[in-house]
Amino acid sequence: MSKKKGLSAEEKRTRMMEIFYETKDVFQLKDMEKIAPKEKGITAMSVKEVLQSLVDDGMVDCERIGTSNYYWAFPSKALHARKRKLEVLDSQLSEGNQKYANLQKSIEKAKVGRHETEERTMLAKELSSLRDQREQLKAEVEKYRECDPQVVEEIRQANQVAKEAANRWTGTLASRASHPQASGHLGGPAAAVEEPTSPRASLHRPPQQPLPSGRSHSCRPGKVSYRNPS
C-alpha cells in the first residue's frame, strides 16, 4: 500500500476557511485544534500555524478578549476581500496598458527619419571608419606618452627626491669619516696597520739602527727614541 500523502499548506488553509464559512461561528484555538483534525484532516500540530497565516493575510479576524483569542471569518468578508483585490488588479492592468501604449508611440516616433537609405548606410560606414581612426590615434599617442610634459615633470621630481636622499647619505658617511674615534669603523684606534710580509716588501724596509746597550726602540711610528730599562 502506498503511503497517504499529506495536505499541502494551501490545502490546509482552504479547508480551515471552509470550517469558518460552513459554521459561521467564532472559535478559540483549542476548538480549532479539535475540529480541524476530525472534519478536515488537518493535523492538530499545524492548526495554530495555519490559523496564524490566515490572520496575517487578513482572511480571518482575531481579537483578544480577556486571556483568550477568538477567531472568526464570514463569507461576506471574503467577498469584500476578493472585490478589493479585483479592483487593485484592474487598476494595475489599466496602468500597464497605458504604459504599453506610450511605449508604442515612442517607438513609432523614434522610427521617423531612421529608414534604411543609401545615404544613411554611407554615413554609418563613415562613422565606423572614424571610430577606428580614433582608436589608432589613441594607440599612437600612448607610444609617445613618455614625452608628455606632465610625465617628464614627474620623472624630474622623482630624480630630485633621489638626489636629495643620496646627498643625505653622503653627508652622513663624510661625518663619520671626519670623526673616526666616534664611529670606530673608519680608521679609529682599533684599526691596525699590518706590515707587508712579502719578500719584495722586506727588501725595501730600512735597516734598524743598532741600539746602545740596555736601550730599546719606542713603539711610535716615524720616530725612534731610546729609553733606559730603569
Task: Please characterize this protein's 3D structure.
- Among the domains are: 9-73, Arc Repressor Mutant, subunit A, CATH 1.10.10; 76-114; 145-175.
- Strands 1-3-2 form a three-stranded antiparallel beta sheet. A two-stranded antiparallel ribbon has the order 4-5.
- The N and C termini lie far apart (131 Å).
- It has helices at 9-23, 29-39, 44-56, 75-111, 118-143, 149-178, 180-183, 199-203; strands at 27-28, 61-65, 68-72, 216-217, 226-227.
- It contains eight helices and five strands, in the order H-E-H-H-E-E-H-H-H-H-H-E-E.
- The chain is elongated and about 105 Å long.
- Helix 2 (29-39) packs across helix 3 (44-56).
- The protein has 230 residues and is mostly helical.
Low-confidence stretches: 182-196, 198-204, 216-226
Order of helices and strands: HEHHEEHHHHHEE
Mean pLDDT, to the nearest integer, reads 76
Work out the strand percent.
Answer: 5-15%
Largest sheet composition: 3 strands, antiparallel
Principal-axes geometry comes out as elongated
What Rg do the Cα atoms give? 53 Å
Straight-line N-to-C gap: 131 Å
SS class? mainly alpha
Question: Helix tally?
Answer: 8
Q: Estimate the helix proportion, in percent.
A: 55-70%
- Kindly report the oligomeric state of this protein: single chain
CATH class descriptor name of the domain at 9-73: Mainly Alpha
The appropriate CATH architecture of the domain at 9-73 is Orthogonal Bundle
| Superfamily (CATH H level) name of the domain at 9-73 | Winged helix-like DNA-binding domain superfamily/Winged helix DNA-binding domain
Strand order, sheet with most strands = 1-3-2
Extended strand count: 5
What's the CATH topology label of the domain at 9-73? Arc Repressor Mutant, subunit A
